[in-house]
Amino acid sequence: MSMTESDFTSARPRLDTVPAGDPRDRGGKAQPLLIVENLAKHFPIKNGLFGRKRGAVRAVDDVSFVILKGETLGVVGESGCGKSTLARLLMRLMPLTDGHLVFDGDPVEALRGLSLKEFRRNVQMVFQDSSSSLNPRMPIIDSVAFGPRAHKVKRSAARRAAAALLEKVGLSPAMFGGRYPHELSGGQKQRVNIARALALEPRLLILDEAVSALDKSVAAQVLNLLRYLKRHLNLTYVFISHDLGVVQYLSDRILVMYLGQVVEIGPAADVYSAPKHPYTQALLASQLSMDPGRRIEQAPVSGDPPSPANPPSGCRFHTRCPFSEAVCAAKAPAFGDAMDAAIHLARCHLTDPTSGHSLAGSALSSLRITAPETSAA
Question: In what order do the strands lie in the sheet with 204-208?
């Protein structure tokens, strides 16, 4: 997929000049916009007449990382690894089992911190399904204006702001403002969702598979729109996707999840060129090639992920890892300081020379997983 600025619609969105700084900044340039510490979400499993708890699904388990101001953090992983649950936890759409959030130096929902209402003014989300995200009985200009109206903005002022936002995402308010969701294409609906998310002037935008339901040409236009808006509105993104090519195109850093845990995080260039975790290597090796002479007929890693209700001991990837040894099942690998955004970390015994793994400290390039290929007939 070729994604360039020319993929925009013919009328580029009209935006104001890029501001020199963000007046909403409270913690300073060095303060991460969002600190996530030991975040967990366990869904209880109950049975019997009295609904006694007999276990828990560990959808997100002890996740820590930071999001820097102005960056795009890409989140990747297989279906069921906890990406969407993590997004909802960051938005506080569901209660946390454990952990806490710190937004620009202020703890969220703490006694002297940021209230949940104020936090949500600063953090908004664009969901995967653009159709079900919109009220089918509400014109789109009212959908975009709904957030400000909920925050006591007058109807006329909210509709004026909504019209300006529709203009910014490339939709003419005069042409599209009065339309209903069923009268829009998939790409137009997602532009409306982006405008609605921007209505409260957030600083952090969480994009959960925001372009996965769109065809490639429309997805390219939306991605370029997101990059354009980020530069002009001082936005920070958390971008969740299955498409590794899209994540690489948009992201500054990459976070890889497996079975509810972060297994690798680091700068995008480092993760794509020199992945440190075998699972990340397998994900990258599974990308389809444009070369018909390099067809993948066998998956780089076999088997399905274990159940998050009963995760394996030690390293959670050891049941599928081609480099697994006894130490992998015996103890969990160390991860390092997830609060340091500059370093490249992996939750793997191969990266720890003192782990006891026979291949620990070996050049990872020599251990890289490659997908079996066959020559074109």
Answer: 123-126, 204-208, 236-240, 72-76, 253-258, 261-267, 345-346
